[in-house]
Amino acid sequence: MGAFEVIVVGGGHAGIEAALAAVRVGARVCLVTFERAGIGRMSCNPAIGGVAKGQIVREIDALGGAMARLIDAAGIQFRMLNRSKGAAVISPRAQADKDAYQQAAQRLCEGTDGLCLVEGEAVELLVSGSGNRESGFDEATPAVTGVKLADGRELHAPRVVLTTGTFLGGLLHYGEEKISGGRAGEKAAVGLSGQLRALGFRLGRLKTGTPPRLARESIDLGALQQQPGDEPAEPFSYMTGELAVQQMPCWVTHTNPATHAVILENMVRSPLYSGQIVGIGPRYCPSIEDKVKRFADKQSHHVFLEPETRDGDTIYPNGISTSMPRDVQDALVRTMRGLENARIVKYGYAVEYDFVPPTQIDASMQTKLLRGLYLAGQINGTTGYEEAAAQGLMAGLNAARTLDTHEPVVLRRDQAYIGVLIDDLTTRGTDEPYRMFTSLAEYRLRLRSDNADRRLTPLAQQIGICEPARAQRLQSKLDAYATGEALLKAERREGKSLYDWLRTPQFEWATALARLPAIARLDAEALQTLEIDARYAGYIGREDAEVARLRELEAVNVPRNLRYEAMSSLRKEAREKLAALQPLTLGQAARIPGIGPGDVSVLRVYLKTGVGAPAHG
Questions:
Q1: For 89-103, what is each residue's pLDDT tens digit?
Q2: Cα distance between residue 288 and residue 295, in whole Å
Q3: What pTM value is reported for the model?
Q4: Bond before 232 cis per omega within 30 degrees
Q5: CA contacts within 13 A on the Cβ side of 10
């Protein structure tokens, strides 16, 4: 088939963002997927956002990505989490109509000029034996040149982004039953794992799971606590404006001692505890079997009953992910209040899959062993739609940018949750499914959900991927912010400006608005950010000072393939870890577990003196 510049393998959330980002840069892109109808499928919980994840979605949007606009178009319930817990952890979340989300994603991909959709299974990477010294790789490093499909077709491109999700060597578990597949009813991708191993990549095995789906008409919803959405609904995308949506409620029930007894009595039939599953599951999103075993003292666990579509009949019981046999699932579900007569329309299962431990990619998402190959999503050991989409966006962006020898875009930890995510993966790695939490971001007061556009849209403008309307929207907010800040600082009360008064807990924002009616007429989103910045100015200032000190280390680039073995003043452990991880900056080197301040100082000296030059030099 014809030549492309970027090939994206996989039509999930990572693949969508990778393909669209590469198109925005100007590349000719091919998206390979098993079937067009599967693009954007929400195989687990039909929801977007949540604590820290909502911030990621806003960041994707600020860089021109699709996820925020898709959920705004398909959302059926919107909530802002943690409003009472402080600005750093306030996070948007929305329940989606999974069918509407999937259809919107498909329409977007099909209607994007420069994006070609190809149905098929990628079974082999096409590889050239020659490298490219100008790219910073050793000249012996092989390069990817395309992919081969199961039907024999070959697609050629100098950049390939793998976003295989749970399909790479996927194996489904329903109790004692095992079925090859990436998700229920869909086959696994079985050809690529062996080739990746042959190319020298280390692979691991992870697992995730999903709960059974319930027939809504079989549930006694009147017996349950109802959970409504926020009114008015707050959109995810900075470009949506006012969000007009008829919201649907969710409901809450709980497991109980009877539920736990059913699980414990049948634990020997669980593939998690029989030894049938070898992959490691997510620590912070455990199956109901894990919850009952690990938290034996707890008498109950929350279960949130969430509609999967606006007009359909299926309910997602968030909180009882399970791979128990089907008869056990029937029994445990019916022990819960409101679910006494519940009918399961799709049974829960666990899925095991191969992943590539992510210290084998660099901060641009490119692999260290195969030039031109980028990895994004669950193949890197993460879990969650949002984490996958963020990686896909950055992988597609950088795959396309490096075609014209542009420097890759690498977001800093103080710049975005996306930067924290990728730095954690590439510097520290993971041996269990990684998900983002606010606690992982040391500068979370800077990385709020309200200011992602201020943090990242100027970068999108700088690298040429920002549409004019988004730039205009941001400028309007910045102008409103500046006007409001000037008014607050000019108005004084008892010797202090209103801006300074906002730092005191007892001073209400409503008081400032009452004294300055002109502020109330300004952009509401700008005012939200202004109020938070004013209230937390002291804390943010301390974070800024710390960031300034750390940026000095980030400004020192480290050449790829340094001969660390020649740096005799470095400790042996430091030489081994630096050689294995190949950090791109001195700051990244300092964050490698086991690398101490003394090692960083020695490495800085070596970089200045030139000892330990790149092996190809």
A1: 999 999 999 999 999
A2: 10
A3: 0.93
A4: yes
A5: 29
**Do 319 and 289 form a contact (C-beta atoms < 8 A)?**
no
Q: Do 212 and 329 form a contact (C-beta atoms < 8 A)?
A: yes
Tokens 């979340």, located at residue: 93
- Phi first, then psi: give them for residue 603, nearest 5 degrees: -65, -35
Q: How far apart are CA 322 and CA 246, in angstroms?
A: 32
Per-residue pLDDT averaged across 7-28, rounded? 98
Q: Classify 273 as helix, strand or coil.
A: coil
- Model confidence pLDDT, tens digit, residues 24-53: 999 999 999 999 999 999 988 999 999 999
The DSSP call for residue 424 is I
Find out whether 418 and 390 touch, Cβ atoms under 8 Å. yes
- Kindly state the average pLDDT of the residues 437-465: 95
Q: Which residue type is seen at 189?
A: A
User: What is the DSSP pairing of strand 159-162 with strand 373-375?
Assistant: parallel
CB atoms within 10 A of CB 541: 10
Q: Which residue has the tokens 């395309």?
A: 146
Give the integer Cα–Cα distance in Å for 510 and 564. Answer: 59
Query: In what helix (H) or strand (E) does residue 573 lie, and over which residues does it extend?
Result: helix 572-581
Tokens found for residue 100 = 């509407």
Please say whether the beta carbons of 194 and 345 come within 8 A: no
Angle CA 542–501–532, to nearest 5: 55
DSSP H stretches of helix in 424-494: 452-462, 468-490
214 sits in the region (left: phi over 0; alpha: psi -120 to 50; else beta) called: beta
Closest CA to 387 of 165, 236, 186, 239: 165
CA distance readout (Å), 423 to 44, 62, 141, 483: 26, 20, 24, 36
The enclosing H or E element of 91 equals: strand 91-96
> Tell me, what amino acid is at 136?
G
Structure tokens of 156? 């050629």
- At 81 the three-state DSSP class reads strand
Model confidence band, residue 615 (pLDDT cutoffs 50, 70, 90): low
Alpha-carbon span 461 to 468, nearest angstrom: 9
The DSSP letter of residue 365 is S
352 in Cβ contact with 173 (< 8 Å): yes
**Dist CA 320 CA 210 (whole Å):** 8
What is the residue whose two structure tokens read 């819960």?
336
Dihedral sign from CA coordinates of 235, 284, 383, 313 = negative
